[in-house]
Amino acid sequence: MTTAAANIGVVGLAVMGSNLARNLASREGNTVAVYNRSYERTELLISEHPEAGFIASETIDQFVASLAKPRTAIIMVQAGKGTDAVISQLTERFEPGDIIVDGGNALFTDTIRREKEVSSHGINFVGAGISGGEEGALKGPSIMPGGSAEAYKTLGPILSSIAAIAEGEPCVTHVGTDGAGHFVKMIHNGIEYADMQLIAEAYDILRQAGGYTPAEIADIFTEWNGGELESFLIEITAEVLKQVDAKTGKPLVDVILDQAGSKGTGVWTVQTSLNLGVPVSGIAEAVFARSLSSQAAQRAAVDGLPADAVKWSVEDRTEFVEDVRRALYASKLVAYAQGFDAIRAGAAEYGWSIDLGAVSKIWRGGCIIRAQFLNRIADAYKTNPQLPSLLFDPYFKKAVAGAVSSWRQVVAKASLAGIPVPAYASSLSYYDGLRSERLPAALVQGQRDFFGAHTYQRVDMPGTFHTLWSGDRSEVEAVPSTH
Ligand code: 6PG
Question: What pLDDT does 483 receive?
Fold first, then answer.
């Protein structure tokens, strides 16, 4: 039987869990208890990493007994039923004041439900989004914890000790209560999807219209990474494009099947945002683009659909590359702006007080969407927490102003050339919609009133109206508010 000596425990020792446990163990003052459903994996971890000084348990009872009070355990199992099973095992054994942390990619509504249930036993439940993949978990992720302020008192210092550091600050903040952390992680992933799709579209344009090879495009991305686009995703894209397949000698990107998978967080972002009425169109297009790519049978069946495309003749290559870069930057800003809008709307809906500036700061390091310009986003929300849209912040307004002409050129020419650019194009349309003084939504309202008496409001007087559509001239009637 083990003695109660660990200040923190990790349940679930697949790669993310093992790496997080090793990260915790490497920090001064931590003693880490580890437990996995099958003991072989635990044995492997402790034999491979004796330096970590793990306290290993074969059973959940031993694991719980090995934790000092208040007991704190981080669950790192695949989101879903497995998480519920571990939570109930721990809840049965933990005491009031103890802390259960779910570090998986849980759906935030599950986290809200679990928090309610677990806290009814006096036990703290914290849903914490953890980003950064395997390497982040080991060396320093970006951490987005929700849960109670009380739990964060114990948990905060532990999480700060393992988080990535960006400009001297640990990439962790108490995002808000119950599901706020997982909500913000979900939006992080939505932005991640958009960012990846936009980069992929930039690559496709450079390749199809510019005729550059993957290795040349890798160099272009490396150069871009030295400027305002500097980010982890741009950096790794260059690495992916440089890779040569050992078997065929071809660029690896050319031998990878062009069907993108997903584990669901992008879909959740879009579903949630639809419910909240927030147009995350760039993120949605990224999710749809993955779906379209995966429709293998349908794509094969329609092979030969006419394109009637116009060749994009690139005259000035430097200008062409610069146009693609600017369009990428502007589209990226739209994705972030939409993501932050969704966080704001989610916070209002679920009663969280989320500091958008603090969120952008903890995304500066460790996570997948880490990027230089998150500093600017943090500044924007610090200067004006009520900013109506990130695109309206003076710095970003100017940035988009400098890019918009290139953006239009790229979207127009890609469309003419038959190169699919769903995320570039929808981001530009969103931008144009947002800045339009008057939208054709007025006509949609008219149509709705015509076929369904759904009523409308007028620009020249208050109230609700319905038109009697029959006859040559429509007659307008004011609708009582009870209508
Ligand atoms: C992260 C990643 C991580 C995971 C995604 C990938 O922040 O570390 O987002 O959570 O890699 O879930 O998602 P897909 O498999 O859906 O692309």
Answer: 46
- Going from the Cα of 23 to the center of ligand 1, the distance in angstroms, rounded, reads 19
At residue 315, φ and ψ (nearest 5 deg) are -90, -55
Give ligand 1 pocket residues (Cβ under 6 A). 105, 131-133, 189, 192, 261-263, 265-266, 367-368
Question: CB within 8 A of 478, min separation 6: which ones?
Answer: 463, 464, 465
On whether the CB atoms of residues 387 and 393 are closer than 8 A, the answer is yes
| Confidence tier at 4 by pLDDT (50, 70, 90) | low
**What's the 346 CA to ligand 1 centre distance in angstroms?**
21
153 is catalytic: no
Mean pLDDT for the chain overall? 96
pLDDT tens digits, one per residue of 241-295: 999 999 999 999 999 999 999 999 999 999 999 999 999 999 999 999 999 999 9
Q: How far is CA 448 from CA 380, 439, 444, 480, in A?
A: 39, 15, 6, 18
Q: How far is CA 410 from CA 95, 206, 232, 326, 470, in A?
A: 60, 11, 24, 9, 46
Question: Smallest Cα–Cα separation from 330: which of 401, 395, 227?
Answer: 401
172 strand-pairing partners: 143
Q: What tokens appear for 265 in the block?
A: 């967080």
Residue 456 has a CB neighbour count (10 Å cut-off) of 17
The residue from 192, 201, 285, 332 that is catalytic is 192
What's the mean pLDDT in 187-213? 98
Distance CA 18, CA 333 (A): 35
Cα 92 to Cα 86: distance, rounded to the nearest angstrom:
10
Ramachandran angles phi, psi of 468, nearest 5°: -85, 100
Ligand 1 atom 14, closest CA: 262
The best mutation among 15, 19, 265 to test binding of ligand 1, ranked by most ligand atoms within 8 Å of the C-beta, falls on 265
Q: Which atom of ligand 1 is nearest to the CA of 369?
A: 7
> Is 481's pLDDT higher than 70?
no
- Cα 262 to ligand 1 centre (Å): 8
- pLDDT tens digits, 57-115: 999 999 999 999 999 999 999 888 899 999 999 999 999 999 999 999 999 999 999 99
Distance, in Å, from the CA atom of 406 to the CA atom of 254, rounded to the nearest integer, reads 28
Spatial separation of the C-alpha atoms in residues 427 and 281, rounded to whole Å: 7
Residues 101/83, Cβ–Cβ less than 8 Å: no
- Given a cut of 70, whether residue 381 has pLDDT beyond it is yes
pLDDT in tens, 324-364: 999 999 999 999 999 999 999 999 999 999 999 999 999 99
Joined tokens for residue 263: 């584990």
